[in-house]
Amino acid sequence: MTGHPSAPPGAAAPPRAVPGTAVPRRGPGAPAPRGYVFDNDSPHSAHHHDCLERALDPLTLDHLTAAGVAPGMHCLEIGAGAGSVAHGLARLVAPGGTVTATDVKPGLIAPAPGLTVLTHDVVTDPLPEAAYDVVVARLVLQHLPERQEVLHRLLRALRPGGLLQIDEFDAGREPCLLAPTEDDARLYERFTTARADLMRAAGGDPSWGRRVAKALRDTGFTGIGIRPHVLLRAPGTPALGLQLHHLAHLAPRLLDSGFTPDELDRLRALMNHPGFAALTGVLHSVQGRRPAPDTWPGGTPRTGTTPTETP
Hints:
Layout lengths: L44 H22 L7 E5 L5 H10 L4 E6 L11 E5 L12 E7 L8 H11 E13 L5 E3 L3 H20 L10 H8 L2 E8 L2 E2 L4 H19 L4 H11 L5 E3 L2 E8 L22
Parallel strand pairs: 1-2, 1-4, 2-3, 4-5
Antiparallel strand pairs: 5-10, 6-9, 7-10, 8-9
């Protein structure tokens, strides 16, 4: 299924707060949240989020704009990281709209007009029901073993007709296109395989991007819309900057998994070589809507009788 979901009904009043949604902030040095390979307390985190913003924000925000996100709407972003998407949403829904940005470690999110920042774990902490016109999660659910349960919670958090956008990579295949030698190419692809293995060991699914559309449909979302993107990793690009961050952040675990210090040095030099180029996995930007009251799950119009079959 492709195409864009239709725009939601007019935005209503701001969402009501749910007692207990905000939880105590975790201080620097606290362990990374369960399931996450990367951590906002990392010394590399600021560079990581800067690369994410430059590489992905234009894609994420363009898809939201095309779906009809507009002034006056009330939005939620889970796993907001450094807050660049939340800030972009706040600009899209001004005047009159609101954005709630949540993260288990939200200390990197700067304040902005119309923006509320909460420390929140989407797996364990409550969300208000039928409260939001738009919910966004980018590169979050692939890290969570409970991703399917979280999708059900996000469905309930949306108002009827409200929009969910999930952006996730399918990192199952990230080919090296150019390298000085075949040995260099093999070393790079060994690194991408090891990175995916580390994510699986933490409970994540690096290939979940390819399954997002089906997961939304199976949860009860309708009007599924899909935009796939592939980015070039070459010296000077933010997509390669992300990969260099991954190498730096994961270095201790890569050494534990069998890489040598010399191999990690070779990888750094390789990714900065003017003759290097690779691709990301496919980024799946997937949208779906909570069914409106006049439709059954699957989008079949209500006619007074239960449908015998839905798409």
